[in-house]
Write a structure and sequence with these properties.
Radius of gyration of chain A: 18 Å
Largest sheet of chain A: 2 strands, antiparallel
Order of helices and strands of chain A: HHHEEHHHHH
Shape of chain A: elongated
Oligomer: homodimer
Number of strands of chain A: 2
DNA sequence: CTAAAATATACCAATTTAGTAGGAGTTTGT
DNA sequence: ACAAACTCCTACTAAATTGGTATATTTTAG
């Protein structure tokens, strides 16, 4: 069970967008440099972020990205969904192979994997970008 | 973030050992057949389980495996440690690269990853093999 | 002696991870 | 008008991991 580098990359990149007070977009180049993330790799991640509606892009010179929503509305769950190619906690043949699963309505294995999944998602849902950005310099949002 | 098939395989295999009332060992062949797990693959998993001290082996004909401890002492965390080749939740350059990390004593990123790790481990520690075995047929242990 | 069992070691195809490469399209400062 | 600075898009790649196979050796019951 591993967490890819993507979650960390995205988290820090989004924080940089969220922490910026100016209304101008920030470029991939700048974020990559500040956060020590390979530029081309970060580009791909932002492509996903845009498709998922977490950021907006401004084309052309002086272009870049801005958050599509206020930090407190961006949960870690949303970030994880993009960062991790697949989130598979329900690892149980009784769940994967539905026919077997249906035989046991209250299968304890299934219950365990579902509970585990819920436990993780509860944590991810209860943390947002705002937790990271306004930790020391208090501000609204 | 994925959970490999191993955790499911081991969980069901160990349950079969734990549920067995006889004092005789159970062979890999039998478990593999009952649980629909590739025999050779299960063999490798049991090798790890033995090395970790979760099961004991009996060699020769009529040999097989028995639990090395009572079910309630076998936590899901112990199983996960064997099932997952690597458990990496602390995915943060501020943690991986110690020099950067030391610069921020109360880094919010680090805190998040550590909290996440603790959250998961708390869940895994609070479930044992006994939860699966004696769900319906109540019995001591 | 032989069949059934664990043990040990090596191999393998497919997939995933963490990138890199090269350019095409868009906008802006000068 | 034009070059620089951007995003956007597609493809490629090396290394590691995953989920398994294959083959042979050792141990023991009957």
């Amino acid at each position: 069970m591993k967490i890819s580098v993507n979650a960390d990359y995205i988290l820090r990149a989004m924080c940089e967008l969220g922490a910026d007070k100016t209304e101008t977009p920030i470029s991939i180049s700048k974020i990559a440099e500040n956060q020590h993330i390979p530029k081309k790799y970060l580009e791909k991640l932002f492509h996903k972020l845009k498709k998922a509606g977490l950021v907006k892009s401004i084309l052309g010179k002086n272009g870049g990205y801005i958050l599509a929503d206020i930090p407190k509305n961006i949960t870690m769950k949303r970030i994880f969904k993009i960062a991790e190619n697949e989130v598979r906690i329900h690892n149980c043949v009784n769940i994967k192979k539905d026919k077997i699963c249906d035989l046991f309505g209250d299968c304890t294995f299934k219950k365990f994997w579902t509970d585990f999944d819920n436990h993780i998602n509860f944590f991810l849902d209860s943390h947002t970008l705002a937790d990271f950005i306004f930790a020391d310099n208090s501000k609204n949002n």
